[in-house]
Amino acid sequence: STDPVTVGKGQPACAAGILVTKTVVPPDAPIGVQTVFTYTISIQNMTPFAVPIENIYDLLPPTFTFVTGSSSGFWPYAPDVNWDTNMQRWRLRWNVNGDASVGANSTVTQIFQARATPQMGLDYHNDAWVEWDEASCISCPPDQGSAFTGSSATVLMPKIYDIQVIAGNGQ
Q: Of residues 163 and 83, which shows the higher confidence score?
């Protein structure tokens, strides 16, 4: 007979068990009116183990700025706010440093606000990603210690179309 083998007891199975999503309220705003948007980053751990979070990042849409004191949820402390010269956008970073974990088979949320005066005809996309302690993973392939939302939590602005009517010869 063979005995069952337990490898890495108490550690997450792999990065494939983490899902990061993001929402925004309101999803649209009046043109030219300063609006405060509330973003929620959800981190879902679908593994049977707690996953220690290292960093939570958010890349705000162009012209959006972080509302100081608005951070709450999983890591309620203020993020580092830095200008990303490559992207020309503000980058937020909550440096959790492994001091908090997403429990087994659970979801946590990071909530914050950003302010902007949206312009006509533009859609404002937002990006977020989460990094966790890769050393906590069992048999994870390289670079599996992060998950990315892609362009999500989009604020949609009304479009105005220029329609030209040309009079014909009665046809």
A: 83
